[in-house]
Amino acid sequence: MGHDEQTVRRVLDAALGEGRSALTAPEGRALCGAYGIPTAAEAVADSAEEAVALAAELGGPVALKIVSPDILHKTDAGCVLTGVRGAAQVREGYARILANAREHDADAEIDGVQVQQMLTGGHEVIVGATTDPTFGKVVAFGLGGVLVEVLRDVTFRMAPLEKFEARGMLDDIAAADVLRGARGAEVADADALAGLVQALSELVTDFPEISEFDLNPVFASAGGAVAADVRVLLDPDGTAQPHRHSRQDILHAMNRLMRPRSVAVIGASNEDGKIGNSVMRNLTAGGYGGEILPVNPKADEVLGRKAYRSVQDVPGEVDVAVFTVPAKFVPAALEECGAKGVAAAVLIPSGFAETGNAELQDEVVEIARKHGIRLLGPNIYGYYYTPHDLCATFCTPYDVRGGVALTSQSGGIGMAILGFSRTTRTGVSAIVGLGNKSDVDEDDLLTFFEQDDNTKCVAMHLEDLKDGRAFVEAARRITAKKPVVVLKAGRTALGARAAGSHTGALAGDDKVYDDILRQSGVVRAPGLNDMLEYARGLPVLPTPKGENVVIITGAGGSGVLLSDACVANGLRLMDIPSDLDEQFRHYIPPFGAAGNPIDITGGEPPSTYEDTIRLGLRDPRVHALILGYWHTIVTPPMVFAELTARVVAEAREQGIDKPVVASLAGDTEVEQAAEHLFDHGIAAFPYTTEKPVAVLGAKYRWARSAGLLG
Question: How far apart are CA 704 and CA 543, in angstroms?
Fold first, then answer.
C-alpha cells in the first residue's frame, strides 16, 4: 500500500521546528489520512458560529474537543463534550470548552475547537504505538474507551507488522470472542481492523520521531474501523540507533570465540585459589587441544607451560584472551590484546558497571571497539564449549556432551545451571556466562547457535535485553529450526512507566516482553527449574505432527490432574473416534474408562500398558502420548519403564516417532524408572503430573510458532 510520506514529514517538521512534543488532533488526523487510517469526519472552528455551521454540515450529534498542543488529556481537563445537538447546545458547548481549557491551563495555546462526527455502534478498541526502551517501536491492540487502563485487555507486537501478525493480535486479547460476535454482539470487520493496525505499525516505523501514538477509541464494526480520537507525541531524539555488528561479522567473531585455536590467560597463576590458576587447570584438565598460553610478567612458566610477560610476546595468533586480573588492570592489557590482533576477550573480573564503576566499563568497551575485539562479560564465570573440549572458566570442567546450549546473565544462576546439568547428566554443547553484557549478548550467541550443528536447543536466563530488536531478529531465524527457551527475570515489575498516552501507560515491561518473546518464536519459561527441564526435555522429544494428545493412565486421579495440566499448557485432548475407542476397550478391564484420559486402572499387568501404548503410537490420528504410571506390585516401576522404552523404540524403528512423556507416582523406585525413560527418549518425571505436560506443552508452543504442525 502506498503512503503519503511527504505529508507526514511536513507535519512533523513543522511541529518539531516549533519545539513541540505533541501534535494537535487535526495534525494527527492528517498523519492518519496519509497512511490510510480512517478517522471520523471533523473540522476546527475558530468561533461559536463557525462551530454551529460545521455541526449542521456534519449532521446529527457531534463531539466538541479542544485543539491545543498544551492540553493532551482533553477529557481530564473537561475539554470534551459528546452528543451535542442543535445550534444552542453547540454555542454553549463551545464556550464551556474554552472556559475549561483556560481554567486548566491559563497559558495554553488554543487553536480552536474540533467539531467531530459522533461515531456510534460497534466495539470500542484501542490501537496504539509506543517506543519501548528495549524493543523500539511497539504496537498495541486491545479494548478501548475510557476504561482502557482499568481493564488492561491489550496485547503488543514489535513494529512493523505483517498482515497475519496484525490479525493474530485480534485473537490475542481476552475479549476476542466479543469481536467475533459472541452472545449476539456485532461482528467486527477483522480485515479492516488488522489493516488499521498494520498501517499504524508502518507509520511509526517510517517516522521514529513519533514516540507514542493513540487511536482511542477506534469504533470497530461490521462496516469497518474508524478512529474517533488521535493523540501523537514526539521525540526529536527518537531516531538514535544502537551500535550493531553485521551477521557476517558476528559469525566470524563468535566462531573464533567458541572454536579458538589458541587461548591466552591474562593473569595466569601457579598459586592455588587464584582465578588465573583455576582457569589454567580447567583448560588443561578439560582436554582443550589448542594452544594454552599463560601471560604473567612475574613468572617464567605456569603449570609447566612457558609464560609470557605480555600477550604481545606470544608467537603466532591469539584467538581468545581470558582475563583473570583485577578490573583496574584490564584497560592496559586490553590495549595490548588490540595490538596483538586478539579476536575476543573474556572478562571474568568484577568491579565494573555492576558495582557502579560504569566509567571503567565504558573505557574498556571503547578500547575493544577501537581494535575490533569482541568482549564477553565482564563479571562472569567464563564459558564452556564441549565439542571443542573448551573449559575457559574458574568452575570445574563439564564433560557430558549433548545438544543443549545454556546461557545466563547471572553468575549465581550459572552455578545453578551447572549443578542441574551435572545432577541430571544433561548433554550440553555450551554453557556461557554473559554478566554485564558490555558487548556480546544473547543475539550474538543465537546467531552462532543457529548455525552450530552441535546445538539442538538453546535455553537462556536473562534479566534484560540490550537490543531487543536484534534479539528478535536472531530469535526468529533460529526458532524456525531449533527451540529457544527464555527465562526472563523481572516478571513482577511494579507497573508501567509514566507516559503521556494510554498506550505508553499500558506498556508495562513484562507484558511487552511476554508478547514480543512469543512473537519472536521463543518459549518463555515461568521459572528456573522449568527452563532447565524444558532444555533437557525438548531435544529428547520429536516434533509432533498434529494437535491430538491422548492420556493413558493407571490411576483415575492422575488422569484428572494430567487433563488439568493439558488445559493449562494449551494442549488439546483428542476426541477419541468410536473405532479407536473400541480398540482401547479391547485391552482395558470393563471397570476401566475409555475416552480421554484412558484409565486402564492400577491392577493391570504390564501387557495392558504395552498394548495400549502400542495402539496409541500406531494410530496416525494420535499425535502425542502422556502416560500416567501408578506404582503397583503387578507392574513395578522398572518393568513399566523398560516395556515403555521398548515399545517406543520398536515404533521408531518402524518410522513412527511421536512425543511421549510420562508421570510416575510411587515410592522412590520411580526415580530410577524415570531416569531410564529419559535415557530412552521419553521425558519422564517422578512425583509430578504438571512437569511432563509442561515440557510437552513447551514443545508444542515451539512447533506451532515454527509452523511445523501443518
Answer: 10
